[in-house]
Amino acid sequence: MSSTAAVAAHGAHAEHHELGFMRTYVFSTDHKMIARQFLFMALIMMAIGGLMAMLMRWELAFPETAVPGFHWMPEPYMYDGAIPPNTYNSMFTMHATIMIFFVVMPILVGCFGNFLIPLMIGARDMAYPILNMLSFWIGAVAGVIMTASFFVPGGPAAAGWTSYAPLSAVPIYTGVDWGQDLWCISIIILGVSSLMGAINYITTIINMRTKGMTFFRLPLVIWSLFITAILLLLALPVLTTALALLLFDRLGGTHFFLPSGGGEPLLWQHLFWFFGHPEVYIMILPGMGIASDIIAVFSRKPIFGYRAMAYAMIAIAGLSWIVWGHHMFQSGMDPALGTSFMLTTMVIGVPSAIKTFNWLGTLYKGNIHYTAPMMNALAFVSMFVIGGLSGIWMACTPVDMYIHDTYFIVAHIHYVLFGGSLFAVFGAVEYWFPKMFGRMMNETMGKIHFWITFVAFNCTFFPMHILGMGGHMRRIYNPLQYDFLKPLQGMNIFISISAFVLGAAQFIFLANIIWSLLKGEKATENPWQANTLEWTTPIHPGHGNWPGPVPVVYRGPYEYSSPEVAEDYLPQSRLIEHATAAAD
Amino acid sequence: MLEYLWFPHDISTFGPRVDFLFLLIFWIVMIVWIAVMVTMVIFMIRYRTKPGRKAEYIEGNSRLELVWTTVTAAILVMLAFMSRSTWADIKEHAPPGDVFYAVNAKQFNWEMTYPGPDGKLGTKDDLTLENEMHVPVHKVVRLDLTSKDVIHSFFVPNMRLKQDAVPGRVIPVWFEATETGQYEIPCAELCGFGHSGMKGNLTVQSEEDFNKWLQDQYAQSK
């Protein structure tokens, strides 16, 4: 659909009657409402995933003792409040699955993808609004199925979020029957939802940009979502296929992954990580885009090396397809192949470094405003640096031999996914809250939340590097069973206490959202004095985003402190006489 | 240095090479991290908002970007090449072994089979023990690693040694211990509800003690 046709279609649509409650808030086809739905679904799931993490940390700090307040849990899930090994396995499996598939992806891609793409490229809605609505509701069904697996006989899946076959393929190996099937089914359904979203995003960004919005005038967050959508489109079918094969093995008597019938256990790992590594970038690329936008706005400077930033993301996405083997160095894969994966993995550090240096370059000679979103974006950068640098140890095959499957890996993934993606999420929610809900979030609460989270996060995950160096295996539920881990137990207790503080701090964030929704200061049209198009719509943009014509774009998104104007910002849609020629 | 980083005491011949690479990366990472963080904090303090000041309009600097791209790439590729020979020696070129074991992992035990003086498996003098492995010091020990059910991972922290045991595959592993003592062999790959307690014991002893232990075991098994 051309953008003019879309405008005409929506113009006609707006003349219709007012939409009812169901069509406005439940089965909405408005991208902004769907974005809010994704946000609230993800926040609910975050509470469940976070609770799992808290229980795990209790178990690791005080192994085989009763969790306070959990005596009511029935056997065999808990024994008088004490967590048995199988429940522990279920908890880390569900923690990771929920956080990855139902929190980080829905917020970064589902919520902010939906919310920002039409508003920032100057489109009235997504290319396929009904597909968009279906994408949310199918995702919600997947979430219900995943949550339901807590209540089936045998409990939820317990084979890790990676679900390595044959452990996941034969029910007696884990003692979990239905739970694992529901896990597979839920993620297959979620894959359908994500594919719908990905198709929608790609089509919208390619076809529905407003006049003057060339690819190299797109804000970096749109670039990142565009690349993410392409990764989703290509990676998810691989996972879906693998999950279908796993279900056949579980329910249909096939032996794709079972050596007893000629199958190959490593096939699962190859399929899983061929999806799984791009998936890591699906979760971090939108964060990079969000951080870039927030840092430019609050430094009041253009992004340093805009094109290099876009090319670096393209390079990361391209390389992400040829590095999956670095998850399998110790799997029994041919060691010579391991060497080639080591080389590609090292090379992927280069675009990541380019991005980091360019963020620093953006701060240089800026006029930095320390708002809550900016603090979260800067935390994103510094935490991503730690997460990226610790990746070098894993890329190095001989060193990986020692630290593979230890807490070093747990530290690394949390620096990238919590320190990275989640700080970007906090920043993004605070930054775009006025656009989403018409009210500002409370800055003081935002800053208190930021500082407690930042300190507690580092106290939780930094010492995990040390546990890993001490040889602490991941996914064990009682470290005291090993003599060589006993000296590290004090650190486990410290980590758990920090983790409880970290968990508790999230209630401040939640409280801030609820308080600001009800009582927050009313937002002005462009509260951050930003350049991008989403701030040119009314405070409560209706269906169709702009009441009048869609703005025309005359320049790139980061013209902050431009010498052309007296103010320190220059919106993309503002016409300056001599700039007209450049737009055409 | 590594004892300050909580590493378990190393007792294998290739351990120092692994530790060297760990430390090399450690120093590179520390230098980069401190440089980046110091720069960031300086910028954050120096360029904090001041009323009336406007930020400088800088769009980029191609030469600077070229420099940091090339330097990063050079360091990382160098690391990959430096790691290559260690990796090859540990995983690809197993030396001929003095002592041989077949290790069969299962939920949730390590089954260690010593083939006996004839060096062949499946003969009368085989010695199979659960979770007990004795090896002589300063001898190359070769293991053929496999699994009966799910994927396990043979991990000896003190040896810096880790290798998954995959059902349907026999994967060769080797090590040479440099010190006698008792060590633990945890399972590093999630293998089910007993994963946490899947622990083998490795006893490294002098060749005399090892032979004596073997004779005792044969005597007991008869």
Radius of gyration of chain A: 24 Å
Question: Mean pLDDT of chain B, as a whole number?
Answer: 93
Distance between the termini of chain A: 22 Å
Shape of chain B: elongated
- Could you estimate the helical fraction of the residues of chain A in percent? 55-70%
What fraction strand of chain B?
25-35%
Report on the biggest sheet of chain B.
Answer: 5 strands, mixed
The helix-and-strand class of chain B reads alpha+beta
How many strand segments of chain B?
10
Strand arrangement within the widest β-sheet of chain B reads 3-2-1-5-8
Word description of this protein:
The complex is a heterodimer of chains A (about 575) and B (about 220). Chain A is mainly alpha-helical. Helix content of chain A is about 65%, strand content about 0%. The two termini of chain A are about 20 Å apart. Chain B is α+β, with helices and mostly antiparallel strands and about 220 residues long. In chain B, about 35% of the residues lie in helices and about 25% in strands. Chain B is built from three helices and ten strands. A five-stranded mixed beta sheet of chain B has the order 3-2-1-5-8. In chain B, strand 1 (about 100-105) and strand 2 (about 110-115) form a beta hairpin. In chain B, helix 1 runs antiparallel to helix 2. The model of chain B has no long low-confidence stretch (mean pLDDT about 95). The chains are: A mainly alpha (about 575), B alpha+beta (about 220). Chains A and B meet through helix 4, helix 9, helix 10, helix 11 and helix 12 of A and helix 1, helix 2 and strand 7 of B.
